[in-house]
From TrEMBL, chains A, B:
InterPro entries: BetI_C, DNA-bd_HTH_TetR-type_CS, Homeodomain-like_sf, HTH-type_TetR-like_transc_reg, HTH_TetR, Tet_transcr_reg_TetR-rel_C_sf. This is TetR family transcriptional regulator. PROSITE patterns: HTH_TETR_1, HTH_TETR_2. Keywords: DNA-binding, Repressor, Transcription, Transcription regulation. Residues 37-56 bind DNA. Residues 14-74 form the HTH tetR-type domain. It holds the Pfam family TetR_N.
DNA sequence: CCGCTAATCATACGCTTGTATAGTTTCTCG
DNA sequence: CGAGAAACTATACAAGCGTATGATTAGCGG
């Protein structure tokens, strides 16, 4: 009648921590923050409930670690996808594509973002992480914008660059949001193309999607 | 030492329901969905805990009612702010302003949106409400875009209108999101002006902010 | 091969949750 | 004006929560 005792299998601490973090992200993305209970987390990670407090001093600490890991993975993936060489315009087009296709643009990612935002507001450490990553991305975008405009013989001032970066970032964020909220309301690469033409219009350039 | 018994004060059922709904929205916006417990809700509404089940058959029903009320208020406010007469371009400019200033663009509104999105995914009724309101707003925006473009001698096709509406909506959503997430990162009417110039660029028009 | 440490498991504890129920007050109407 | 219904309060209850605590197993140096 009673469930058999879970078998003992030792593993690398790093693996265990990663499993717990992955479980947190899965649960939060799927069913919201209140679904990530210690029991559900341990279950999803295939561990017993005590492990979470063995590797993290509290549940909140695990949640914070999961948030950090998620943000880092997101930014790393974006950075890695940018070709080191290539024209500034190609790099700009590429970051638009990456930002508007999975795994960055995703119902799952949007869901996670929504789940974390309240914790971001309350916890100063999480808030700092959030702000830093957000501005880091916008600065990256701004530098690409400045380079692309300069290359096409239309240099922009510093204040203008800021405004353009905010505007282009808004386009990306807005399309990311809509694609994540209503994924089946758009054709496969529709958001990517709309993003490309919109940014082109805002900057006065002509960006094009790469062929797949 | 025990708290004194709460005094009896009868009131209009509609007022009571409204008080409970307002309490739900306040708590959710301030501290996230898990802060809206029955005890906290009743307390915030100045009522005893039993009232929530007296006016709503379950807590979930109250949450749904709160979501409906919030969405309706939002859309009604937007609609009401549009001048019935005036040029199409003026109306378009007006909807941009309204969408990017309080109470529509607000940390509170963003917070509420994030709190509700997981319920939207699970509950088909809430999902239907969400989808309907989203598309209704986008259709309104699209009709204004079509009219404004036509007025300035640049008629757009049906498919083009859809794409432009999605793009402009994305600009508004993105700026709304950024303003809500980092309110102090922008100057007072900065987002409004960026929205105006961005939409202008996308549509090939020249919209201008009204003076306050 | 034994015993020790650390990893892992199971379970208990106090608290909060949503819901159900019993008790109290106010209002209405015959 | 006095019963009876309806609004309202308070409290009880089972379930689930995060945390704490022992019991159990695996690896490793003597």
């Amino acid at each position: 009648m009673s469930a058999p005792r879970r078998s003992f299998t030792r593993d690398d601490p790093e693996t265990r921590r990663a499993a717990l973090i992955a479980a947190v992200l899965d649960l939060m993305a799927e069913d919201g923050p209140q679904a990530a209970t210690v029991r559900a987390i341990a279950d999803a990670a295939g561990l017993s409930q005590g492990m979470i407090r063995h590797y993290f001093s509290t549940k909140e600490e695990l949640i914070n670690a999961a948030y950090q890991a998620h943000m880092e993975a997101q930014l790393t993936a974006t950075r890695a996808s940018l070709p080191a060489c290539g024209t500034a315009m190609a790099r700009l087009a590429r970051i638009i594509t990456v930002s508007l296709t999975p795994p960055v643009s995703d119902p799952r990612t949007l869901s996670l973002w929504a789940a974390f935002i309240h914790m971001i507001r309350r916890d100063p450490a999480m808030r700092a992480t959030h702000e830093r990553n957000y501005l880091r991305f916008r600065d990256l975008l701004e530098s690409l914008i400045v380079a692309a405009c300069a290359d096409s013989g239309r240099p922009v001032s510093k204040v203008e660059a800021r405004r353009l970066a905010i505007a282009c970032n808004a386009v990306l964020d807005g399309l990311w949001l809509e694609g994540g909220a209503l994924p089946e309301a758009f054709a496969p690469r529709e958001l990517e193309q709309i993003g490309m033409t919109s940014v082109s219009a805002i900057l006065g350039l002509t960006l094009e999607c790469e062929a797949t």
